[in-house]
Records
---
Amino acid sequence: MLVLNSIADVRRWVNERRMRGQKIGFVPTMGYLHDGHLSLARAAGAENDAVIMSIFVNPLQFGPSEDFATYPKDLERDCALAESAGVDAIFTPPVSEMYPYYPQLTTVEVSRITTGLCGASRPGHFTGVTTVVMKLFNIVQADAAYFGQKDYQQVQVIKRMAADLNMPVQIKTVPIRREKDGLAMSSRNTYLSPDERRQALCLSQSLKLCEGLYEQGERSSAQLQKAIEKRITMEPSAVIDYVEVCDQETLQTVEVIDKPSVVVIAVKIGKTRLIDNIELGGVQTCSEL
């Protein structure tokens, strides 16, 4: 497996594979890999001839009080895991390579679906996400890019960006990977103390409770939200950012679930902000645009 640090090296690697007629799958990450990331790599490997993964902690998507400086990093470990999942090359550029002129004057912004949910509590976050993803797409020029469903709003934002700008890349979504006890895999889980790790199970457990109520016939968003909030607030260190029931595509809130919807939650456990979601009605385990 190759480790590439420059845009020029990535473009040479891509051109060599294009000359062989190979399809390229791309997995963008911020590193500190877990099995959720590796499931993206495996999905890319099953559908393409070559797989490239990026590992880049993007400063543009972190707010001034967020964890950019302390975001977990272990490149040697990441490389070993990526290679075990079939990744052919890793692109891990320094910030100066991705942003030679910083602050960057040109950004990419998707409106409407970025204003609520994580966009409301993390101003500027999605502009940072779409800008870096656009840059990565332009650098790699992959046939398909793979994202995890855990970051539900992010996936919808990237799908819309790619569609609106006629980008020649398929955006594919891979289902959430969970620990045995149900916690959604996340690099930020490493921030949790043992007691906080136990309390964090309230996210997946509240969504499971919501799913059960839905299967029993409950369609009122307010009632489902109430049940979720009741379970989460049982934990002493849990602080709810949001609990919303939304249309799967537009992310507009819905009062009654009468079409494919998604329940999205964000909760702080101690100092660690975690997100999770579950689709209700017309559930799709893998999708593409």
---
Amino acid sequence: MTGKEFLLYGAYGYTGKLIAKRAAAYGLSPVLAGRNPEKLKLIAAETGFRYKSFDLENSAELESALEETPMVLHAAGPFKDTAGQMVNACLKTGRHYIDINGDISYFQLIQQFDEEARKRNIMLMPGAGFDVVPTDCISLLLKNHLPDAGYLKIAFANTGSRLSHGTAMTMAGKLGESASKRVNGKIVESEMGENHFIVNFGKKEFIVMNISWGDVFTAWHTTGIPDIETFTAVPERMIRMLRFQSLFNWLLRTEMIRNLFRGRIKRAGEGPDETMLASGRSMVWAEAGNRSGKKIQATLEGPESYLLTAHSSLIITKKILEGNFKPGYQTPAGCYGENLVKEIPDVEISKINPI
């Protein structure tokens, strides 16, 4: 075991490959891992890192692989099929766990192991990528400037890019489901698209609509703000379509329709190409307000979201390997502060704007 090594499970997935190819720039040496040895050989030949092939269902091999390194960066989705096995193995072997998941339900699942992780002196940090590093940091930034904030709205947009297979497959598995928001500290369901408005992200304006996003769970842990709602930029035609979605949500939830979408995803490109990675931009907007009517806003712009994920997850990995971590369940900004996002290359944050 060396101080630079960590286990990267899902190394041949789209985002896993982005992480593997950039690890050396951070002085890190991932042990490339996943189920398919042939795919691992290809990425190992390209990066020069060693690899291990094993299935998460084989607990003995999983635990053996974890015992060779201090931590895992888990990049193998869909996380509903993989997160539980990996977290349990990390707790058993006493290894740190981070992932690039952004699903509320798996933040909730992993947070339940907080006490056990503290006893084991290990950190559990889901959401170490675009979900939710930039949004978590901008949330804490606003909280620090408005300590009595009672509500928080967070919106994001991506330009010049496209979804990876993994992200698209996860979204296909949620067709027809409702959105989530936090009200008085509790997560409640809401109709997706029921709330929409125009947001100025600094350089561009977009229509955004309410969705389920990881910050409904994580931003509350980071800031304690009781009312939180999340939004994403969408074409105006989608707003019109969603007016009628409640009539056929039952159909979208069927496996027949979801499999139809999965088939289309498999025939599409793997993810953003090199041109998209270089030119794509990710943007975040957030607003917080208190009971007396004071409101503040901030915006953030950074590299393409998958590229941002590669950088942020490696930055956090390096911190952990250097002994910079807090035991238990942690959020990115809750552990490392609002300035964590500034360590990511090509990130700009606007000044706080009172409104």
---
Amino acid sequence: MKLTEHIANRGERTLFSFELLPPLKGENFDSTSQTIDPLIEFDPCCIDVTYHREEIIYKERADGLLERRTIRKRPGTVGISAAIKFKYNVDVVPHLICGGFTREETENALIDLYFLGIDNILLIRGDNPAGEKSFRPEPGGNRYALELVKQAVDMNRGVYLEEDIINPNPTGFCIGVAGYPEKHAESPNLATDIQHLKEKIDAGASYIVTQMFFDNAAFFRFEKACREAGISVPIIPGLKPLSTRAQLSALPRTFSIDLPEDLVKEAEKCTDNRQIRQLGVEWAIEQSRGLIRSGVPVLHFYSMGKSDNIQQIARAVF
């Protein structure tokens, strides 16, 4: 079922969803199940699976020189999405990114998902290559998420890259895109960022999932600005509970977000990560309750591979 159909059929209740990482190369499905199993009781409307671009590593050879290698540490997004769908009978939302993929590779991935009966996708540009300050698309790939959306929308219309396909079948993907309550790190301001977001909606995207935030006021400002800009699709808030002291600096640096002063002050009083993890749970519970009161259609949680804290939050609010 499409995520927009889940939302249309929800009545007055707020739905639950979460995101997980595909396992590292060499791991099996058990690591994924360990994240999912504690959360199934909350009847997730869907489970997101992230996509990861290639990384460059350097290995020292026997002669002392460095050998440059390209690896993908977390392959298998399509396969894991299919395994989740059929094991748990839950809708999945695989992510597709621009970085590291040609348009043909993107089309082939979408065809695979279509054959698997997967109805939902989340399309994002993706991160810069490791060590590079600016985004570099793959030769023959999409540079912006807008281009990725347009390619998926074309396939929904039966338009493929190869023009002479006989009787091309249209796909039927429900397309989601990312929103940034505190603006994307590369945008000059929030208004410009929202204008780019509106272009993706106008091109055919059906819903928005936000970057993590720790202050609901940031989400409400973003939501209001989106509506004023003419964006009417569902906007789903994304939450990530604080879990370690290192995240006090790592999250703002990595995701270009602010942590509220009150949260930081309380975290500084904690003597170990166990206390910080519990603080993160309590903070996210209050965030969740405030967002539910406002009528958000779905609460979406970023698990980062661990789900015990999300389980505590869900038990308190769902």
---
Amino acid sequence: MSFHAMNRRRFLETAATISAATLFSSRFGWAAGEHKINKIGVQLYTVRDLMKEDFDGTIAKVAQVGYKEVEFAGYFGHTAQQVKDVLQKNGLTAPSTHVQYDELDEKFPSVIEFSKTVGMDYIICPWIPEDLRKSPDIWKQASDKFNKCGEQTKKAGMQFGYHNHWFEFLPTNGKLPYDELLKDCNPDLVKMEMDLCWAVAAGADPVKYFEKYPGRFPLVHVKDLKTKPKISSGGPQNYGDTVDLTEVGSGIIDWKRIFAHAQQAGIKHYIVEHDHPKQPIESITKSYQYLENLRW
């Protein structure tokens, strides 16, 4: 082989190696930076005061911001068909609703019927009241109740779930209630809607839960904190008044780190919430704009 031919071959081999490396890195760079949320949702509790005055008009404003999904926390006297109609009119879907703990017994069949008419996939219990949490075996009671609800929703082609605050991450009799729920609830019957903000506020790491319990978190609540609050397990706490909440992306929570584990967690629905915004529409608009532009 001539010197010229050898140099040419080395040149081509080197060029091919560089090209392959560049292509490899560019592909993986694209993958790492182009994950995004396809459909951003909002918990309508955020705009509840507006909905009391103008139910249809408020839902229309939510859609105009750009949201594609909404989660209900009350219907203000509207029938299931009326709720379904206003959603269709505004190009929205409602994958989930919040239902209080005392509606999970005799009232639950009617809750399922209402939710199914609207077209929902999930029925979520948003919390357990403090007076009930004083019972020493409340978390076992809750798990049993949730499993029964899960059986009923499964028969209806739906899914039951639980939404946390921060008290579930504080020790009770040496155990974390959230861990007890995950242990005692049937993973096929009961999913978790993790409120990422309240978990962080309590000092928990959502990513560690995603790693330990993969696929059990199809919904998450997305809201932010300016500072980590001082918290306790009880007392007359009005969540949102006792912490310094802010719009998503303007606080201390590392959203890219959390959402990088979205597939592992099983997240399908990202739901914005702010418990007490001063200007509700402006608040959900800022949060939407941040999440719409977020890549990880």
